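Table S2 (text version). Query chain:
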Amino acid sequence: MKAYTTMNLAKKVILGLISSAIISSVYADEADTIKFSGSAKLTQQQFINLNVSGKLEAESISAAGLIKVSGSAQINNSQLHDLRASGSVSLDHSQIDGSLKTSGSLKISHSKLSAGEITTSGSINSDNSTYLSPIKLSGKLSSELDQFDAPISGSGSIYAKNSRFKQVINLSSNKSSWSNSSIESDIFIKSDNELFSSNIPTLTFNNTQVHGNISFTQAKGLVILNGNSKITGKVLNAEIQPAQN
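Corresponding structure-token output:
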């Protein structure tokens, strides 16, 4: 690796970054990767690959390859391919057409995620966004005014308002709820007997339409229907508490 490489792209990017980035040093290697040895604050830059050994704050950037961040990432009005972060990630008015993986929480607003898988070990807080990427949960998904066009799976729970779910949902979850939403596929709740020994796994629907089957495995579940909620498919291994109008 050489500092300030002679590659045309790297030279152009580095010259622009010197005045806009908060860093201890910046490098470019032979694989077209710009590397920061500290945190970076970037505006209106284009990259192939980007590696930040700290916090990333980005406004109106694009990256055709992989962005790796060893801290948190706050990204606005940007277009990315793959993103990896070891801290929390915030996306606002941005697009990711590859995969997204973080060991922290995700906050996503007015964004579009497609192609690769979304994986997080923290919670997801989302609004006004579209998901063409499968989601693998390890925490809570809070959704409002979102559309999910790919499957959701994992060990987390879902709390959704005014959202649309078009593909299968497969969770190990104690409780999840939907309000004023639509679900257009099947829901599977895999219940571990030890995990749910003191709590009945429960799905609550408020003015929500479910156009698929709901199935609980192992522990018997409870389905609560409030308002004008309706299930057009079958409910397996669960008690149904109908709406009280």
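Notes on Table S2: The chain is about 5% helix and 50% strand. The first strand starts at residue 26 and ends at 28.
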